UniProtKB/TrEMBL annotation:
Gene3D superfamilies: Chitobiase/beta-hexosaminidase domain 2-like, Glycosidases. GO terms for cellular component: lysosome; membrane. SUPFAM superfamilies: (Trans)glycosidases, beta-N-acetylhexosaminidase-like domain. Its EC number is 3.2.1.52. This is Hexosaminidase.
Length: 576
């Protein structure tokens, strides 16, 4: 069984005579093999690896990926594919989120109504879980299960309503959000149930760490119960946070009873939280620093939410040891174990989840493995592009799945014109999607917004070229490259429009395609003015910038990501 903090270092020496890999631990051997695989290049003479010597070790011992199987159930092949990807980028903790308001996803033999009534039939048997544990262990990956409590627990209450604080009735939640139902922390029967349940699950999962959730419990059911309010008064619990701390302390003792270490989201950090609880910070780095300052070990997830469609550069810039940690002592700094990328699945089905996780999670993996000084963003993107191609060879088919979805959207006709549009749009960031359109468990995720990657590489490269041109730092070929792109985007609309109107799945893209053409036309005008040093009319430029601001707004729950680059070109023109 693997343990936190094992020696994962390795030494790799490659010469003309061969390659020698040495490590003090099998984990180091696994990591060294992945490095070697990534160094292999195809040449006219065959496969080759450059001569070099590498001494490598991780910066942080906890480098994880969390996948939420509660909201959308993730089949076993999806889990295995992501474990393969984790091995490739040297991540070593798979955090498996197994219960949610929308589903209880694991077989309990002690309390079978959990899965029989709380899963819609979508759950993992214990034998299947053991298979995943073996698969992960063979790849140097620990598996930490999470059962969220006291909130996010509606699926528990469908089969066992006496666990809840309210009177019910309860059913599997079909919408997304934060809901009122919560476990009753005042009844001894709650802890008797959890004692048996945790005994069953801690025996199934061998890792020393066990996650009990603890996030987003709003306390409304507690506040509505005179009985619970009386309990709080009797036990001198001043508010809901104190009541949750009481609950956490009771559950932590049940976990500790099984020789396990409790992990919880940062809401569990309260004045009386036991000091062996590990704090997973999702609300900001300040809570991580505060936990470390108070002697708690912690894991950073704030800034690593890959479901929020932020760029790889955004994730790469987030370091567990900045923003509040500078004042920590060496001993306090050592309390920060590392971090986890998190993939919540409100907007991710099994078909598309891999494309939401990869390849950007590799940027998180590098931040957690490599030295703090390794932070060149351009270099990161170059290497990420190469790794993205290799991940498909390793069994992560997110690129081919996206291509299949595009063909489906185009009615199985030639998808080239739709691909041109798809290459420069991306989903809205953060929590904007839920504000643009209402979704639930049954919403089909089969539109272009579900097909395209979270980050448009084409738009990012165009915006970089536009910035160089606008600042007088154009590299050789930049002018021609920008012109070719803008011409392609300008002319694509005429080809694409007839096919868009033929399907209810794509008719919503008509304005987006048209606006892409108009934005590209504006970009070409600005490019000509800059290249020929021709001044432009002030009113014309004002109108162009105003129009571009409109094009920045979401259409069909998508963002046109070339607009920032076109704006830069327009702003760089001289007014006559």
């Amino acid at each position: 069984m693997q343990h936190l903090g094992e020696d994962e270092s390795y030494h790799l020496e490659i010469t003309a005579a061969g390659a020698l890999l040495t490590a003090p631990n099998p984990l180091g051997v696994l990591h060294g093999l992945q490095t070697f695989l990534q160094l292999v290049q195809s040449t006219p003479e065959g496969f080759a690896v450059a001569a070099m010597t590498i001494d490598d070790r991780p910066r942080f011992p906890w480098r994880g990926l969390m996948i939420d199987s509660g909201r959308h159930f993730m089949p076993l092949d999806v889990i295995r594919q992501n474990l393969d990807g984790m091995e490739a980028v040297k991540m070593n903790v798979f955090h498996w989120h197994l219960s949610e308001d929308q589903g209880f996803r694991i077989e309990s033999k002690t309390f079978p109504l959990l899965q029989e009534k709380g899963s819609d039939g979508l759950y993992y048997t214990q034998d299947q879980v053991r298979g995943i544990l073996d698969y992960a262990r063979d790849r140097g990956i620990r598996v930490v299960p999470e059962f969220d409590m006291p909130g996010h627990a509606m699926s528990w209450f469908v089969g066992y309503p006496d666990l809840a604080s309210g009177s019910g009735p309860y059913k599997i939640e079909r919408h997304w959000g934060v809901f009122d139902p919560a476990m009753d922390p005042t009844r001894e029967s709650t802890y008797q149930f959890l004692d048996q349940f945790l005994g069953e699950m801690t025996a199934l999962f061998p890792d020393a760490y066990f996650h009990i959730g603890g996030d987003e419990c709003n306390g409304k059911e507690w506040d509505a119960s005179p009985r619970i309010k009386q309990f709080m008064q009797t036990h001198h619990l001043k508010d809901d946070a104190a009541l949750q701390a009481y609950f956490t302390g009771r559950v932590q003792k049940l976990v500790t009873k099984r020789d396990k270490i409790t992990v919880g989201w940062d809401e569990v950090l309260q004045p009386d939280t036991p000091h062996d609880v590990v704090i997973q910070s999702w609300r900001g780095q300040d809570s991580l620093a505060e936990a470390a300052r108070r002697g708690y070990r912690g894991i950073l997830s704030a800034g690593y939410y890959v479901d929020l469609n932020q760029s790889a550069a955004d994730h790469y810039a987030v370091d567990p040891l900045v923003n509040g940690t500078a004042a920590l002592s060496p001993a306090q700094t050592a309390n920060i174990l590392g971090g986890e990328a998190t993939m919540w699945t409100e907007y991710a089905t099994p078909e598309i989840v891999n494309g939401r996780i990869w390849p950007r999670t590799a940027a998180v993996a590098e931040r957690l493995w490599s030295a703090q000084s390794v932070k060149d963003v351009d270099s990161m993107y170059q290497r990420l592009d190469t790794l993205s191609q290799k991940l498909s060879y390793y069994g992560l088919p997110y690129q081919s799945v996206s291509e299949q979805m595009l063909r489906r959207l185009s009615g199985y006709s030639d998808p080239v014109a739709l691909q041109v549009l798809a290459s420069v749009v991306q989903p809205p960031r953060d929590y904007a999607r839920e504000e643009l359109k209402s979704y639930d468990v049954f919403s089909p995720l089969n539109r272009l917004v579900d097909t395209v990657p979270p980050e448009s590489d084409t738009a990012r490269r165009f915006n970089e070229v536009a910035a160089r041109i606008a600042t007088g730092k154009a590299a050789p070929g930049d002018w021609e490259k920008a012109r070719q792109w803008l011409l392609l985007w300008r002319d694509n609309d005429a080809t694409l429009q007839p096919s868009l109107v033929r399907s209810a799945l794509t008719v919503e893209l008509v304005p987006m395609s048209h606006n892409l053409s108009k934005a590209a036309t504006t970009g070409l005008i600005a490019l000509d003015a800059l290249q020929n040093s021709t001044p432009v009319d002030a009113e014309t430029r004002k109108r162009q910038l105003s129009e571009l601001k409109e094009f920045e707004k979401p259409e069909a729950v998508l963002l046109n990501r070339i607009v920032p680059g076109v704006e830069v070109l327009v702003q760089a023109t001289k007014i006559q």
